[in-house]
Amino acid sequence: MRDYSVLDDLEEGVQIISPDLRYIYLNKKLLSEIQMTSAETVGHLMKEKFPGIDKTQIYSEIISCIRHKKTKKFVNEFKFADGRQSFYEIVVQAIQEGVILFSRDITKLKRGELLLKETNKDLEQFTFMAAHTLREPLKLIESLSELLIIDYEDTVPYEAKELCRKILTQATQGLHMINSLREISGLKNKDMNKEIFSLSEMFKENINIFLLLNKKIYFLEHQKNIEIYSYSSLVDFFIKKVLQNILRDGKNNLCIKRVDEEKQIFCIENDTDSKWDNMDIIDRESMKIIERHLGKVWTELSEGRMQVYFSLEKQ
Amino acid sequence: MDFNINRNFMIDLKKLEPMARGNGPIIVVDDNEDQLLIIKICYSKAKRKNQLICFTSGDTFLSYLTEKNKNLSSMPSLVLLDINMPGKNGFQVLEEIRSRDEYRDVPIIIMFTASDSEQDVIKAEKLRADAFLSKPSHIGDYVSFFEEI
To answer: How many Å lie between the alpha carbon of A139 and the closest alpha carbon of chain B?
Structure first.
């Protein structure tokens, strides 16, 4: 019999299995984990020592490796007789004697992953609920200010009406943002479908919202209608965020262009007479939207011209 | 859980169809008084003949149905029910109305502001609501809703 003592003290669990699925060798680490001795296992069939193991993934991977001589790495959940449950990252490799298996205990890592998943789910739930709760008062602000503008048009002074319009615009924007946040939070994914829509029209509509806030904005018609196939609410949210960040005081000449049809690259361009400060044009939410589309976003700034490039996944 | 929503169940404000039946009152149940104020103003703009009756809780509405609405002439022509209310929520009220034989055919629209989750829409349809409405935020939409419905 070959000497395997070099494997005895390895940090990973090691076992060697014969082609007829008997234990040939188990190192100290593995024996301590299964709480058995070498004498109790070596020479015995796997399913004899662990009844039911022949129905597990690890067993079928061993058989497959013996047959096809292909190395494979996978994660295996193992339930011990005493009720303990552990996760192992296992590498199974064909050798002359049969197969050798290296197993690393990743239970802590797996539990951490599960905890992270649960925390994320809680956070998503919280975002969803917060968005829910905020929608109602915002909708009411929107309706009430609209009523004030419509019903008291002749009696309210011009300045007061302008203030009402600003309240209305901000409430409408807030509602758009909240709806998009709910979608981004992931809980409304099932609702989201890709659709064909006009990016240039969407851009113009968003500019109109800012026009209500008395911004000096001019939409430059550089191109024909830009039709795309994507998640319209997410793209809408992205455009709003970008416009919020790039519109400053002064005169703004805006346009949107399709830079590369094949790679779905677009550019929002703003020629402005105001000075640019160091500011975050692309914030975290905008970045997340683009990542969701498997795309990229970057900015270029030269001689007062701000260009925000973004790509969406290919159709 | 089945997530297939019947889109025809959801009211499209651009394609409104009459739903109210008869000359009885149109009833709105919503715990938010500001919302009711908006509804009342928009309803008056719609110049509809039916009387508008508002309730701020499901319980008071159910008591009204039990005590005062025993003859067919005052049978509601339409009920608009908010979902998120303290006490009995909209689903419970809907369930109770449908369990009474005399109100089996009253058109009921479930209204949502804060929720339009798929589960809620499916639940509303399962409990035999006639339609689902996401509350309009624009006055014009509200007015034409009352005019057309």
So the answer is: 5
